[in-house]
Write a structure and sequence with these properties.
393 residues; alpha+beta; MetI-like fold; 3 domains; three-stranded antiparallel β-sheet; two-stranded antiparallel sheet; 55% helix; 12% strand
Length: 393
Amino acid sequence: MAEFENKPTGPDEEPTPEESAAENLEEGFVEDEEQVLVASQWQLIWWKFRRHRLAMISAGVLIIIYTLAIFCEFFAPYDPTERDIMLTHAPPQRIRFVDQEGNFHLRPFVYGFERERDPETMRVFYEIDKEQKFPLQFLHRGDTYELWGQFETDLHLFGVEEGHVFLLGTDRLGRDMLSRILYGARISTSIGLVGVFLSFMLGVVIGGFAGYIGGIFDSIAMRIIEIVRSIPTIPLWMGLSAALPPHWPQIWVYFGITVILSLIGWTQLARVVRSRFLSLREQDFVTAARLAGANEWRIIVRHMVPSFSSYIIAAITLAIPQMIIGETSLSFLGLGLQPPAISWGVLLQEAQNIRTVALSPWLLLPGLMVIITVLAFNFLGDGLRDAADPYSR
């Protein structure tokens, strides 16, 4: 079999399948040329995606974040509602392996601290007490919890037998910030997945039928999309969120916010799906399926949607961070979830004043988690979008 040649391409030319195959061979993603020739479209997409290093790193970061969110009860050292009024606004403790005498310890530990008050300003501050040394215990038996509300246990990833360990400090009520951030990740990250799923269903169904059927249905759907997109997003979120009954349980509010975000976020995907369907409905494979006796639903679901499913996957990945930011913004403004519910937006309510930023900057860490998650989704979406065309460079 002849070897592939990497021929130069102009700025407006797309490389041939053979040239892309040769690039995959050179970078070691496939073993031989025959493997490329018989590869499916999804295999080519995977090989192209693996070359996007930043997207691969982002995928790993998201796997870690969602693992922490799913098993937050196990990874959190304390109950997120447990208070200690003598340790309010306590600073983060540093994990150490070397003590003050210079001795190395295989088991990591943290120093305790003493609460003191400035006699002039009356401000509370904490001094490290090197006489208090708390070794970390892994697979520690601590506070009892119900994993996913079903399995009761008291096993935590780490903890201390005596004293306290606050790796990310405490809030104004003496609650552990690490535990609250992990619990908040469950709501803030899952609302993006649930909201995008609903947006995906609305966008594909409405946009698909608008592009495939056309006529009066297309006109009505497009007018609705234009009206929704013409309304400023933040005021619309605020108005719809304020319409939720104040006596609703927090779980109802959670799903209410998810539905609100979905009703706003489906329009862009619907327009893209409509435009693709307008170009695909006259293609030969659609005509062949129609002549073979396939009904309209089967033609749309089995033939037309899979033809650009890679783009839909990339669009969904890029839409999830918008949902996360939406929930965080509403909760931060006091129009979304409210305490005792825990989300990153609820936690950021603690950082609404200058005093917090100046004296307790660790309370801004939920915002950092939002930034990391949003950037990871954006980089992952860029990688999927590039990989959607495996023959491009």
